[in-house]
Amino acid sequence: MSQWSQVQQLEIKFLEQVDQFYDDNFPMEIRHLLAQWIESQDWEAASNNEAMATILLQNLLIQVDEQLDRVSQEKNLLLIHNLKRIRKLLQGKYHGNPMHIAVIISNCLREERRILAAASMPVQGPLEKSLQNSVVSERQRNVEHKVSAIKNSAQMTDQDVKYLEDLQEEFDFRYKTIQSLEQSDKNSILIKQEMLALQAMLNTLDYKRKEVLSKIGRVIHEIDVLMSNMLTEELLDWKRRQQIACIGGPLHGGLDQLQNCFTLLAESLFQVRRQLEKLDELLTRLTYDGDPIPVQRPQLLEKVNFLLYNLFRNSFVVERQPCMPTHPQRPMVLKTLIQFTVKLRLLIKLPELNYQIRVKATIDKNVSTVSNRRFILCGTHMKAMNMDESANGSLSVEFRHLQPKEMKSSAGSKGNEGPHMVTEELHSISFETQVCLYGLTINLETSSLPVVMISNVSQLPNAWASIIWYNLSTNDPQNLSFFNNPPAAPLSQLLEVLSWQFSSYVGRGLNSEQLNMLAEKLTGQQVSYNDYQLSWAKFCKEHLPGKSFTFWVWLEAILDLIKKHILPLWIDGYVMGFVSKEKERILLKDKTPGTFLLRFSESNLGGITFTWVDQLENGDVTFHSVEPYNKGRLSALPFADILRDYKVIMADNVPENPLKYLYPDIPKDKAFGKHYSCQPNEVSKPSDGGGKGYVPSVFIPVSKILNDSTDPHSPSDLLPMSPSVYAVLREHLSPTVIETAV
């Protein structure tokens, strides 16, 4: 079943998450129509290879054309229209930057895998539950409702101001008419009656002025309360969700809704500002004793300007945190002299601001870091915000060609810093701009979440551990001295984040049993998730007992092993992986002989082994584990082929494959058959081997187990022996000779 077919079978709450990341950058129609083709391409590799990305983009457009031909024959007018629009959009948007669509599609596929993994987990973790709190959702709805009500109130006040203006114009006309009469005429009874009517009209004007000022004051107060409470909380929640998403958590949404709220509030405030300007204009034409406008208007205008300043300052956000395109799953880790991307958005979307706001990027502005290392940004560090580059038309700017460069410091300062010190240093990318609109000049500043600067890719694992720990432990966006005294983290939340590393990076998260094993490895004991606090040193600095590496280095090596060598097996759920030697014996002891399971090595970095259960002649149960396979050996022979071809030579020299059933009882070929690279070669004569007369050969793994062996963990040796060669040897050589050769 394709990944997209699995996605379509999800519950509605997960489908809503999927819906959030499909837009005009990569329309869902294309994902649906070209599901199998899209999933068969290597978009991640193309995201770092322009030539490959160019070919994939061309092939994507060809696939769209083929779909267009098909739906044209079916005379599906709506789909024809949409596909033509999408094709034009894709070609225009990515023709000059094909790697960008490769990044987008790769991210979408990875996010689908994360959601599928989350859906397969029996329960949500504490972090994810907090992000999907029903109270938060209710507040979002309340904010949108109040913003809409405020907008309506401001528009209704516009009508009151217009009525006031019409009333004053009538009063002004009638008053000037009387003033133009001769003195003798002014003493007539009719004129005296008109003067009384004008006095009544002036009283009405006074009442209406006070009423309009009161309504304007209420609108301003409602905006103030909304901005100070619910809208601020919504923005802080979005920033927290962004932090969690950066370390593998659920995709954060809601920025478009926030943009709508910010924009409507800004429009309402500018509308109120125009109303106050209109009142000032009316004041210049008519004033009187006790006139409320000169008393109240300055205070109201000052409050409106104050709210606009705050609204604009809060609306300037980092939409996408700094990230190297070469490592999309490791944001906020930046390597010197390597380009990174970062995207900013102004949540107040007004047409008057398009291409009028220039944003400047700097690093470590007005902050002191914990080391002597200093950096500058090379490349295009000033760009204009616009509404044309974003698919949803937001007012944004994306820096794509920034490079951090380390400045030379005083001699010897750098040599005092160990590898952990470098990866625990936090730096800040800052952005500043100025908005000039309707007579207002507002200076805006914002900063990225703290980033870690590395000079060598070998520092990336520890740097990423720092990013995880920071964003898990604090919602402070600028605590650059965090690692001077890093706090402990709740074990329950840390385990949830570790599962996210697997779901986001290799497409399948960890179940409760796997997390239990990691918890025991971190703490050295069985503990309650809810109560235990784990130190930063235990996670990333102290070596595991009896080992020469830390927990995080061990886990990161496993992630790398899965990604590069056993990804399909992991996604299918056939790798138990995190299970101790003691636990595996408990699981296997009552199983049919030949039952095996796959687990990651606890003593070798990036190693995977398999253990199977066997039964001796006296009925005793025995276990055998092979020496772990590392990336070097797996580069030579796919792991699925190893499981298929693995042979054991017992004391009687009869080779056999002892692996029959994957735990608990899945026939081996049923589990791994679709992952075999080819079928085993049949016995071939030398003349069948091609132009040079060689017998075709493949590597097969062979182990030797002696009956009197006291070591249950006999290592396997990977020998260059094909099934066909072995068959020929059996035909012409005695078992003794074969044993000697092995």
UniProtKB/TrEMBL annotation:
Keywords: Acetylation, Activator, ADP-ribosylation, Coiled coil, Cytoplasm, DNA-binding, Isopeptide bond, Methylation, Nucleus, Phosphoprotein, SH2 domain, Transcription, Transcription regulation, Ubl conjugation. The keyword Transit peptide does not apply. SMART domains: STAT_int. PANTHER family: SIGNAL TRANSDUCER AND ACTIVATOR OF TRANSCRIPTION (PTHR11801). This is Signal transducer and activator of transcription. Residues 570-672 form the SH2 domain. PROSITE patterns: SH2. GO terms for biological process: cell surface receptor signaling pathway via JAK-STAT; defense response to virus; negative regulation of developmental process; regulation of apoptotic process; type I interferon-mediated signaling pathway; type II interferon-mediated signaling pathway. GO terms for cellular component: cytoplasm; nucleoplasm. CDD domains: SH2_STAT4, STAT4_CCD, STAT4_DBD. Belongs to the transcription factor STAT family. One of its GO terms (molecular function) is DNA-binding transcription factor activity, RNA polymerase II-specific. It is found in: Cytoplasm; Nucleus. Pfam families: SH2, STAT_alpha, STAT_bind, STAT_int, STAT_linker. It comes from Chloroceryle aenea. It comes from the Eukaryota. The keyword DNA-binding applies. The gene is Stat4.
